[in-house]
Amino acid sequence: MNDLLNKLKLRLLGDKDIVSNFTDKAGEFAVDLLVALVILVLTAWLSGLLSRITRRALGRLTPLAGSDSTLANFVSSLVRYGVLMVGLVAAFAQLGVQTASILAVLGAASLAVGLALQGTLSNVAAGVMLLLLRPYRVGDYVELAGKTGTILTLDLFVTVLNASNGLRLTIPNGKIFGDIIINYTTTGRRRLELEFGVDYADDLDKGLEVLLGCARKDKRVLGDPAPWSRVTELRDSSVICKLDCWVTAADYVNTGPDLTKTCKEALEAAGLHFPYPHQVAVERAAFVGKGPSLTPGKRSKGTNS
Questions:
Q1: Residue 276 falls inside a structural domain
Q2: Helices (H) and strands (E) in the chain, counts
Q3: pLDDT at 25 over 50
């Protein structure tokens, strides 16, 4: 009976060494688990702190407004998730997990995602550069990838334009960053270049004075730089008189057509003329019999082969 009880006790409690080792391992694992949890909590707190510091630093470095805050949000998110990733790997290492295999899996997954989203990631990289360099802002009138319009929104992937004809254009940032960017709003003013063709017999000095007078009378034309007018080209049937003047970016669209009409009427009132292209019509019948006649198979004297 005693032997039976001893065997039953041995089966229930097991070997003392095994129980002792299990107890030690359980204690060590509990300590490691507690340390891992502490690491995760500290990592979460530190990631939020660094994210806020990064956002504030970017705001002080380059004052952000409107949609330009996208850059601060993006960089602060990268910092936050980067710190969380480091903390997660450290927690796994504290629990005895081989971090080398985790890093290998993360690296392979990153490579696969990068190859699959190559075009998208290039747009993101271009968006970051556009937000850093700031060649344009929301509300600017620009020309991007051959399209003109007013900037509506700008994010990490695309830029949205409102074209003058009412269309809304969505252009990938990768295409914009690899092309010429023209910003018509940055300088605050633009130059009008108007050309008028007058007759060769007209008084050119008088025509130039008329053009300058029209520019000076228009209140939208800026006085500095002063309007400029010169003869710039001699064409087949006309002499080109050019007028250059500066206006604000907001007045550019309407001032050009209005000033063209005003100058045209003023030149006509001053007695100058706008010649039309001339064409000379030659009738073949008027020359019949006046030149050396050629008959098939014969060559007239004096002609060259």
A1: no
A2: 8, 8
A3: yes
Residue 11's pLDDT is: 56
Distance CA 215, CA 210 (A): 9
Q: Is residue 46 part of a domain?
A: yes
> Is residue 298 in some structural domain?
no
Per-residue pLDDT at 70 exceeds 80: no
Residue 114 has pLDDT above 70, yes or no: no
Entry pTM: 0.59
Looking at the structure of the chain, the number of domains it has is 3
Q: Tell me if 284 is assigned to some domain.
A: no
Angle at Cα 163 formed by Cα 162 and Cα 168, nearest 5°? Answer: 50
> Can you say how many angstroms the Cα of residue 33 is from the centroid of all Cα atoms in its chain?
49
- Phi-psi category of residue 303: left, alpha or beta, with phi > 0 → left and psi -120 to 50 → alpha: beta
Beta strands in 116-180 (DSSP E): 141-144, 147-154, 158-162, 168-172
Domain of 152, CATH number, reads 2.30.30.60
Full residue range of the structural domain in which residue 25 is found: 2-116
